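Quick one before lunch.
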Amino acid sequence: MQAAQRPHLIIIGGGFGGLTVARGLKRAAIDITLIDKANHHVFQPLLYQVATAALSPGNIALPLRAIFRNQKNVRVLMNRVDSVMTAEKKIRLVSGDEFSYDRLVIATGARHSYFGHNEWEKNAPGLKTLADALKIRQKILVAFERAEALLSVGKADANELRRLLTFVIVGAGPTGVELAGSIAEIAHYTLRKEFRGINPDTARIVIVDAASHVLTAFPSVLGDSAARALQKLKVEVHTQTAVTNITPAGVQIGEEFVPTANIFWAAGNTASSMLKSLGSELDRAGRAMVGDDLAIANFPEVSVIGDAAHAIDSATGNPLPGVAPVAIQQGLYLARKIKQELRGKIAPKFRYWDKGSMATIGRGRAVAKLGKLHFSGFIAWLMWSFIHILYLIGFRNRFAVMSLWIYSYLTNSRTVRLITADDL
Ligand SMILES: Cc1cc2nc3c(=O)[nH]c(=O)nc-3n(C[C@H](O)[C@H](O)[C@H](O)COP(=O)(O)OP(=O)(O)OC[C@H]3O[C@@H](n4cnc5c(N)ncnc54)[C@H](O)[C@@H]3O)c2cc1C
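Model of the flavin-adenine dinucleotide complex:
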């Protein structure tokens, strides 16, 4: 007797959402092809620590092949998906090759949005991938080296020194706040005694946002606490101020033009343009509108999750935020749903459980909202550290990150300050 053919599931994206679906189907009678344009899963919440020389890329990322080494029903392909042909149940790679599916999960995350000013990107890189983080790290470290070199050869022009040692972060959400706090620590603590010409402590660090306070997704009391913590680190906080232009010479912040060589973008998000090929409804950020079963309209076999999806929180009626717990819970739900479907059962609807949110503002300071409880300062930072270690993938990484954090906390040092590209 011939064995019945197993259904084929394609998962596009090995981030939090896609990885959770694949791992949740470990023992299911289904063949999975996981396609990602990168060869690794990256723990994005700690990317800023790679960008600010506290951690190495290997501490927060693992090759997808290694993750699925023992899960025989998963085949990993490193490739970029170009489009989905929903009517034919096929996906097409940028190479032109096509694959058929019985079930499709799209978990392609988001990229930065420059609000219609894509030309700003080359002067204001954002932070989404390991490559982005390394680029930012390079820029920060090189800025201090260039300033020291200028001063050492007697070519020091005060304006040029000021430009090199000014850092502007656009966007005061968690990523912007974390970047600003860490750059301030590099300037005011880590590098303080290491230069003989410049004084890194004189670096100007500015964070700017059009919103009325920092961390708008948090209650204003926590946003205010984060702003105070930033100010203690000598970060200038400009809220209710729009960025209207970015050039190689600097950035226009409200009425002030700030000359700087170091602008980092932590503002808007946009979903992958690949979603347009679905032909279904997208929101203004390009995310696919999904129902309470996470499928797109008219194609129950096509699900979109995580940052690529516009799903409604059944408890509040608002769209779910683009955060890791949403992607993970949606991934867990889909794995369960697919297993139930394989048994001929109908799965219940997706419900999000909001466990809270956190952001850190440098060494030993954070804010956390857990239900109605608010925390700030050292306690919040301990909670933040514990949760991030817990969710980091791989035992070796957890151990390494914990040891590095303890060492950095005690010594104020940043261990990964090597400039590896020729950028002087
Ligand atoms: C710097 C930063 C800090 C963050 N901090 C926090 C935090 O503190 N707490 C929190 O909860 N959330 C945080 N987030 C948000 C959180 O990381 C995301 O919500 C989460 O990663 C979304 O998971 P996802 O699976 O939807 O997408 P991702 O994790 O982004 O994964 C998407 C995957 O799809 C792949 N991909 C994309 N397009 C294609 C294509 N066309 N073909 C093939 N592969 C493709 C990508 O390579 C990637 O591996 C942060 C995000 C960033 C960028």
